[in-house]
């Protein structure tokens, strides 16, 4: 999934080159201060990179601070806040931009103003995310189950064909000694399936965030208006910080109980670096093509509108189904009224603050 995301974003970064020479409505980005705008863009790259690193790294502090562990109450509150941020990103930031792009007067009225393409693409993306979520989780569960069966068959042969005895010893070993074989048995009862699902969630969520991050990076980098860039630097720094918290929380839960610590740590670091670099790289690409890129050209509007619509559908689905529903229906939350109140307030704070940022970004 991460490799797929890499090539997908690489294709995204190529799309400005395909639309640079397209004629369209007049470009209104310039205000005659290109040197000042370059300085602001460099500041933006540094500020957004730092904000992304801090945001996505905060949830990992649970490894050193037990109070922030994945099963602690405060972690549920942090995740609810981050999920609210992601939900607001989809509904308030990305989807309205998609509607604006695909209903622009720079586009031919037929068919772009005859049908709500933005909402349709968002719906299709949400359904597609559901399909990927379901198929990928089912596939990894089947692979995991097949490995368990092979292990049991091998153990059965070693013990003279007494399957019942092997399974009994297998479970006893887990309870008494925490042996890795026991972890397999435990995962078969649901823990492993839950872990696999969380890994799928983290990778699909990163894909949705990355698509949006690249687009806003290119848009900022292509702008030559200091008055436009200044508020965007602050707003996008907070934007990436909050989104990083949401992604970081998913990554921590997805890799919390791995039996292959070195591999999983490397995989998590790769995903963190990938997330942190997308917006700065998008800004760099925008700087490179700013002299020829016209964000109001028909092809630019169509490509960005469709990509934004798809990203919003992915993020809305992930926030509601995989983040909020899973945590709000967790037995730990359901049996604790105070925790329910806290995470609802946290959700409203996250969604409210991120919605407020839409005034500037």
From TrEMBL:
Residues 1-21 form the signal peptide. It is a multi-pass membrane protein. The gene is ZIP5. Keywords: Ion transport, Membrane, Signal, Transmembrane, Transmembrane helix, Transport. This is Zinc transporter 5. The chain crosses the membrane at residues 37-62, 74-95, 115-140, 204-222, 268-289, 301-321, 341-358. Belongs to the ZIP transporter (TC 2.A.5) family. It is found in: Membrane. Its main location: membrane. The keyword Zinc does not apply. It comes from the Eukaryota. The keyword Ribosomal protein does not apply. Pfam families: Zip.
